[in-house]
């Protein structure tokens, strides 16, 4: 025989279907969000690990001068080296739809695939032509069979046919890196003017082998063979952009998801309280008949069990689907090897446990109120909240607006909960618009550090005076500066850990680069350098102005003093020094980069400079590796920004949905609770329009108040998100921009939500017969 407490629990849930499903819905939203976050993070880590295993990712990559010697077999004999492989990569330019695109060209092996950092392709054998990396093909909208022009630095452009697509999971997707990736066979490479040489050595290391020691041994071995190492890159450094995007998105989702869970518990607790309050008389009867506290604990415990079961049955499959969709989209966009998606058992256990724990926690306060309430008080069938206060004064005039406000104030906890849910949803949406503006303003501010319109990267070393003389002859150019940009290894004190950084040597009195100083000054006195915040964080937070670091470039090492620290630029660690000091150090007077200001800094004027510059360099036999305009430089961070903002908007709309459904549920409950008021109003001649006015007015009151609260909450939320996201992306806070357009947009949306959530309950109330309202009340 079924116990009475089980029957009562089931009957109560059936009697309050709307609120029961609202409770289940509220908890499910929170658990789905948590499950999706946890599963996505675990799947990303799994996909990253699987990608490294499937491609046999290099532990260390050595960039060298061109060499033809066979050194692979000798390197593999070194202690702890598992495999070694030599390759060739070069910058090149691909002409697509009449525009030159910067690409990285890789020469394919003579047969088969590479052993280290293998790519994926459907081709059994490679043909003469060009193969496009998958993300680059999507970025440039290229397909097999199309014709393109490919040009190596200093060589003539050659027309080639796109033969197919290669999935190279080692490459950062083109939409994030801003450059494409192409592959050619050795025969095609020779037809482009390339030589049969290598300039990269990649190795995998035994897990027990120290990376630093292996790097030192291999570098020494290569130098003994007269192969100079210009840069070494570790596996961890190549994954930074992927982890940066994922961690930025997950950080924001975790912060907002935590708020959603907290509000969900508050909402569920309030709904339980209202359900129990309406059953107070019935429960008091049971108490008068001898029901003990154990009976009510069992009954409410059974209620928790049923709600938890419903919640788990909804949350687990939906969380699985959401995590699968989000994880698949993320791995595809970040260009990782697709791995089968599995719902992690530990995540399922967390959701299952939380499905019961959350309603149990939410029910504690209502349960205590029931157990402590005297039997006589419960039998009065008068809600507790309304008996605690005595009416003070009398109103001589009656207005529907007064009734709307009075009803709202008699349900303080309910309306506060509604306000919180809608306010946080609105705050997130407003903060999203402000955060987007801050991101754009920050990127724009960073890009204004570079006060030039076109930048050429040149192959080889060109005398600075000669290059500046040529620059003056470029039609449409206003001014120019020659720079040297290359890799350097940075050391601090006795620590010989390899840290790669971009080294930028530019004129001491440059007007083309005006950064934002965080510490010290932009000064290049004797043996002084300026570093960016990324470099400072890489070396350690204790590094400050006046400290010394050692730079190793081109086989030469020297100690320098830090004169200042500038903000990051979304381009990783960087060290800046005076061009003359660099020339003295390297014993040369050459540069490899030309920055040009255009007379007309519009799109047409910049393109005119690019076209004229290309002709000038070709006429003087200067090989161009790449060219980038201001517009291309500005568009590079857009993909990262869009990914982050999309995640924020999704969470914001989750808040809105929960708040809107909660408001609709509250309005439906008001119809039941206010039958007496409605019956009196209708019996006194109140029209259906008055009923609509009553309920929709309450909805609008909540909407307008929530809109005001959203604006107040969005400001500190935006400051917090801007600081957290800025630290993740740039190691410093984003520029604070708070546009009023976001607040205006949310005001319109909140008014719409208030009307939409109130309309159905208002229609239900207006269509009920007067006699039925009075009899039921």
Would you spell out the secondary-structure blueprint of this structure?
Layout: H1 4-15, H2 17-55, E1 60-67, H3 72-76, E2 81-87, E3 89-96, E4 99-107, E5 130-133, H4 134-140, E6 147-151, E7 158-166, H5 174-177, E8 180-184, H6 186-191, E9 198-205, H7 211-224, E10 229-234, H8 235-238, H9 240-278, H10 280-288, H11 293-333, H12 345-372, H13 375-379, H14 384-387, H15 400-410, H16 412-447, E11 454-463, H17 464-472, E12 477-492, E13 495-506, E14 517-520, E15 528-532, H18 533-539, E16 548-553, E17 556-566, E18 574-578, H19 579-586, E19 590-598, H20 603-619, E20 624-629, H21 630-635, H22 638-673, H23 675-683, H24 688-730, H25 741-766, H26 770-776
Parallel strand pairs: 4-8, 5-7, 13-18, 15-17
Antiparallel strand pairs: 1-9, 1-10, 2-9, 3-4, 3-6, 5-8, 6-7, 11-19, 11-20, 12-13, 12-16, 12-19, 14-17, 15-18, 16-17
Helix pairs in contact: 1-11, 2-9, 2-11, 2-12, 2-22, 9-12, 9-16, 9-22, 9-24, 11-12, 15-24, 16-22, 16-24, 16-25, 22-25, 23-26, 24-25
Strand content of the residues, in percent?
15-25%
Which strand order do you get reading across the main beta sheet? 3-4-8-5-7-6
Distance between the termini: 35 Å
Integer average pLDDT: 81
Q: Helical amount among residues, as a percent range?
A: 55-70%
| Shape annotation | elongated
Uncertain regions spanning at least 5 consecutive residues: 381-398
**Secondary-structure class:** alpha+beta
Count the beta strands.
20
Gyration radius over CA: 34 Å
Major beta sheet summary: 6 strands, mixed, barrel
**Helix tally?**
26
